[in-house]
Amino acid sequence: MATASATRPTARPVRPRAAGSAAAGARRESPVKTVLYVVAAVLSVVVFLVPLAWALLRSLQPDAVITAAPDWKTFFQLTLDNFRNLSGIGSIPRAIGNSLIVSIGTAVLTTALATTAGYGFGRFRFPGSGVAFALILVTLMIPFQAILTPLFLELNAMRLTDNLLGLVLFYSTVNLPFGVFVMRTAFASIPGELEDAANVDGAGTMRTLTSVLRPLVVPGMATTALYAFLASWTEFLGALVFLTRQELYTLPVALLNLQQGAYGTIDYGLLAAGSVIAMIPCIVLFVALQRYYVAGLSAGAVKG
Amino acid sequence: MALSEAPVRAQATAETTRRGRRRPGRRNAGSLTHPTRTAWALVSPGLLFIAVFVLVPLVFAIYISMTNWPLIGSYRFIGLDNYSAVFRDAAFRDSVLYTLLYTGIVTLPIIVVGYLMAVVVRAKRRGSTLLRTIFFLPYVIGLSVLSFITVLEAQPDSGAINVLLKALGITDGSTAWLVSGPMATGLICVLVVWGVSGLTMVLLLAGMQAIPRESYESAALDGASWWEQEWHITIPMLQRTIAMSLILSVIGSFLAFAQFFILTQGGPGRETTPIVMYIYQRAFVQLQVGAATALSIVLVIVVGLISAAQFWLLREKD
Q1: Same domain for B124 and B225
Q2: Is B251 exposed, middle or buried (0-12, 13-18, 19+ CB in 10 A)?
Q3: Of A263, A280, A254, whose CA–CA distance to A55 is shortest?
Q4: Which of A47-56, A110-119, B15-24, B227-236 has the lowest mean pLDDT?
């Protein structure tokens, strides 16, 4: 299949990042590989992008079209009715608002907690730091799914069930270990000389953090915030268990109600439109900030 | 909406100011004089969250699991009865077996598909960055939303899955995917592989980019084919990353919930009920919190062992 490439010593630019510095020789690829790449690319677009575009198309079709065998005469008569009708079901706009509150709250709180903890772990050597960091690592091993019942009883006793703040605290805890991990790496990778220089220049610790260290850890903070936002935006089990009052439902739970016809009849047009609304922030945020997202994941992967 | 928004914001601001005040206090002391106190002040809010929302529930869980705790009403201590019941619980055994089956089906395809994606996008070619984005999009959208979309596309005669299979001449297009255990399982497995392989791709890609280019150049000079290079260089050097992706994927499968809950509610009967859904039903539908928590402890131990294996595997070569 790819034997043709074997005769070309420089045919494999495996490391795009390092390629710029060392690639003195020709980096021309064999035509076989180029063709394979194009085929794979086209196939990938069909397999991964078409279903999402299809979902968007569905959200613009009325229920009657979605639930009937495709009739090409009506299939492309698109309408915004689903979205209009969704906004008429009070619970849905409220659920979108709830999801925004919970996700933004979680992103802010997780990032604040992870940044301070990451600063502590990444730039200070102190007795007990090993144990404290191990404690956070251990949390990574305890899935929240498995402590859901005691957590429910505890949150209930603290009056934090049926409470968006309770959900924010819960999601922040779930996302914290990863965030601390990312932020510790971010702080630890800053050269110590930089901090020393700031000290020599008379900058206090606070000043050092805000003007010298901050710009260097902003990418890590973006990773943490984005990760926390996306995770809480789509989280399902916790929201299902911790919220019982309909006016507090987050979007995924409200979609479940749509699917089960809790707002009257089952209308797949509404479900499609609701799903598209749930998809949009994920896609927009990820496409805009994917550099941070992928960097964060890779940092966790390689240094883990 | 505005009412409930306020406390969240207030909470966030309170957090910031509290920490903001703490740091200037440190300025006088200087990080060299009292670094320990400062460091503990920095890490303790995070530790407090972990303690309150992870460690306390975990200890509490051990206690609850030894009672006949109902969700509402009084309870009494029953020792290890819940645990001995675990082994007699046929429904739990079925959910474990089903979870193992599901994990067994999806794990290898996720790794293989993720690996192939990484191979396609690892070199900087025209459009490779865009492809990475596309591969990762389903994972970002999340299995819960993907499952809702799948609900309508799995309908007999009208859903895209059936329409496509009919057009290809594979089925007559009237398959009711979600009411048959094996059909629903197959559908969910395809959905999950499609949805989460992007994560494996990102993890493997990071590992691939860390492999020195010279390794390939010398192999290519020796006349190694693409496949030989992959087999003798990439895969051995990616061992740790592959092991980690594998374990992450296995843990994810063990904890699967949303896709089953949304698509089949565990049915027909209990045919598609994974462990977490069974525990959820015992606790929050049948209101047997004590028994459910004993099952949870078993799950914590199993997942803990898998994670411990992960740390052990990753630490070995350091």
Answers
A1: yes
A2: middle
A3: A280
A4: B15-24
**CATH number reported for the structural domain that contains residue A261 in this entry:** 1.10.3720.10
Record the tokens describing residue B131, joined without a space. 């492809």
For residue B290, being part of any structural domain is answered with: yes
Rounded Cα gap, residues A297 and A259, in angstroms: 33
Inter-chain Cβ pairs, chain A and chain B, closer than 8 A: 361
What percent of chain B stands above pLDDT 70?
A: 87
Which structural domain, as residue segments, surrounds residue B50?
A: 2-64
Contacts of A255 in chain B (CB under 8 A): 144-145, 148
Task: Provide the residue type at B316 as one letter.
Answer: E
Tokens of B41: 């002040």
Give the residue from B66, B113, B140, B147 with the most A CB atoms within 10 Å of its CB, the best one to mutate.
Answer: B140
Residue A76 lies in a domain: no
The reported pTM is 0.84
What is the extent of the structural domain holding A92?
84-303
Which residue of A lies nearest to B2 if distances are taken between CA atoms? A97
Distance of CA A212 to the CA centre of its chain: 28
Task: Closest CB to B225: pick one of A2, A48, A150.
Answer: A2
For residue range A58-71, what is the model confidence (pLDDT) as tens digits? 999 888 888 887 77
Same domain, B14 and B123: no
Please give the structure tokens belonging to residue A261.
């016809």
In a domain, B260, yes or no: yes
In percent, how much of chain B has pLDDT > 90? 40
Q: Give the residue from chain B lying closest to A6, CA to CA.
A: B225
Contact A139 B46 (CB under 8 A): no
Same domain (yes/no): B176, B121: yes
